[in-house]
Design goal:
Number of helices: 7
Oligomer: single chain
Bound molecules: adenosine-5'-diphosphate, magnesium ion
Length: 233
């Protein structure tokens, strides 16, 4: 049995506005093992992004507890949460969240510098991440000049550069054509093979069919959570 890296226990999340309260997550219980490949599916508004944002440490939850490697996070202070977001989580956003006027290489270097590495001596390492996603040729191009598929690959390379054990992706192929979607999926699968936990949100049944475990969320609750046979990758 692989180590449990993350455990959510009775996690609830509310959004408050002047006139209403939305309960986006209702007592969610989930466990993720190291190295799992998981697809989260479900209708729009069901709570998928909220769940991913809670896992990422970007969105505080209101009730319940989240354990990272067996440690309860209630004891985390701001600095611990920052460390968690920075070193434990690689987040791939649908809108890429790249630094557009930086080159592809500098986008990776920026991620390494945030971790305290020296930019000059990290270039080789940064190039290796670009190579992993097939962007060696584009290293000197500005992020804004890349195609959608290339941008998403760069965003993944950056998430990988932080050597985080958990890779989260919210609809990473939502804006991409089928060729780029294939490339992104093969990169995510490669990360999974390297032992990282990959959790991605998708609307696309073909993509969900490629994940060993599928979690379906509806109205803030887990509607289904099952393992399935997948073709050998
Ligand atoms: P999904 O990603 O499955 O589409 P979300 O997690 O985005 O679902 O949303 C779950 C519920 O929470 C929805 O009812 C949505 O309208 C609401 N919600 C999401 N984000 C916010 C927010 N920032 N403020 C208020 N309500 C929100
Ligand atoms: Mg969403």
């Amino acid at each position: 049995m692989a180590e449990t890296i993350l455990r959510l226990q009775n996690i609830s999340k509310y959004y408050y506005s002047d006139t209403s309260v939305t309960q986006a997550l209702r007592k969610i219980n989930l466990e993720f093992s190291m190295g799992e490949f998981v697809a989260i599916t479900g209708e729009s508004g069901g709570g998928k992004s909220t769940l991913l944002n809670v896992i990422s440490g970007m969105l505080p939850f209101d009730e319940g507890e989240m354990y990272f490697r067996g440690e309860p996070t209630f004891q985390y202070d701001d600095q611990d949460w920052e460390e968690y977001r920075r070193n434990k989580i690689g987040f791939v956003f649908q809108d890429y969240s790249l630094i557009n006027h930086y080159t592809a290489l500098d986008n990776i270097l920026a991620a390494l510098v945030i971790q305290g590495k020296d930019p000059e001596s990290s270039k080789e390492e940064a190039m290796a991440y670009l190579e992993q996603v097939g962007l060696t040729e584009q290293a000197a191009q500005r992020a804004s000049q890349l195609s959608s598929g290339q941008k998403q690959r760069l965003a993944i390379a950056r998430a990988v550069a932080v050597s985080a054990p958990i890779i989260l992706a919210d609809e990473p192929t939502g804006n991409l054509d089928s060729g780029s979607t294939k490339e992104i999926m093969s990169i995510l699968k490669q990360l999974h093979r390297e032992g990282r936990t990959v959790i991605l949100i998708t609307h696309d049944n073909d993509i969900a069919a490629q994940a060993r475990r599928v979690i379906r969320i509806k109205d803030g609750k887990i509607e289904a959570d099952f393992e399935q046979q997948v073709e050998d990758w």
